[in-house]
Every structure is written in C-alpha cells, then in structure tokens.
Amino acid sequence: MINSGYLKSLLVQLLFIPLLGLAILFFKGGTIDDPTTVGYSFYGNFISELGAVTAHNGEFNSPSIFFFIGAMLSVAVGCALFFIEEKKLLDSTQNTFVFAKIGTFFGILAAICFGLVAIPFDAFEGSKMAHTYAAQYAFRCILLALIFNGIAIVFDSKFPTIFGALNLLASFAVAKHSVDMYLNDFYSGYIPLSDVILSQKIAVISLIVCFIARIVGTKFILSKLGKA
After folding, report:
1. End-to-end CA separation in angstroms for the chain
2. Which of 26, 28, 188, 213 has the largest CB neighbor count within 10 A?
C-alpha cells in the first residue's frame, strides 16, 4: 500500500493549482503601471497581487483574495509535510541523513514563509514589508531545501536519481527569481519589474513541475524504496 503521508503531502500542495486558477479567474484587474487593464496579466501582475484587498483598479478584490489565501496555505501545509515525509524515505547513512536533515529544516522554514505570504500586502500598515520579506525568504529557503534534498537523493542509491536532478534543475529558476527580488527590493531596484514578474512565473512553474513529477512517480519511488 502506498505511503499515505507522502502522497497526501503532495496532493495538499497540488490544491495550489486550482485555487490559484480561481484567484486568477476572479481577479478584478489593474497592474502597477496601468490600473485600467482588465483581469490578470501574466506579464504585468505578481502572483501576490491576487491576494490584495483592493485591486489596482480600485475594486475590492473578492473572491480572488480568498482563493489566493487558500492557495498559499495549501502550499505552506503541504510543503512542510512533504519535506518531513520525504526525509523519512531517505537512507540514514551519515552523508544522506545530514543533507536530508538540512533540506527538511529549510523546507519547513519555506513553508512558514509561504504561509505568511497569504497576508495581503495592503491589509494594514507594515503588511507590504511583512509580505515582501516573507516572499523573498520563502524562495530563498525553498531554494536551499531543493538543493540539499536533491543532493541527498543523488547520494541515496535506492532513491530514483531523476528526482534529485529535477530538484537541482528547479533550483536554477528559483535562484534566478531570488536574485531578481533582491535586486528589485520593494520595486526600487534597477531590474525591470517585468523581468522580476516573469522570473517569478518561471520559478513557480518549475516548482509545480517538480512536485507533479513526484506525484506521478510516487508509486515508482516507494516501490523502489520498498515502502509501497
């Protein structure tokens, strides 16, 4: 029987996709540069803008805000459970155990930060700073979690190496966005805002592909580890 904890952690994260889709569908509109645009712009809106109390066009952003909050909380809960469950599947050899333990630590920190990202950036005074720092550290922590868990998987002879490779490949996109966010801190840097928005989308898509691959390969992973 498939390890239910591992699969459930992946499925909880998968809720992010339909919830984010609904948030995009009901987004009221407007971008930072042009409040007159209609609906959500892939190249003009950050994902975080789906969770604004008031959209850039001045309208109350309901129900998009609630779907966004649900999406971020699903990522937070699923991410924490995933890294805890995956650590249990890795060998307890000294090298693998150390890397998996460090990866899990940063995975849980990332989960906490993703949960804080659910706070609307325009909800109260100081919420923009809290939201922005939470987003920055969420990507930085998930980057480190991917790298350390990826190394642990590569060292584990029983764990399919392809999933470690996917972790490390996804880390490039996440690293790029982390650097872009740092260089465009609070929209005041010299990196064009459109580049930061695009790198965010690429990073998120890379993470989604990484975790969907885990779901598709769950039975194979666990059977190879003798836990199915």
Report:
1. 5
2. 28
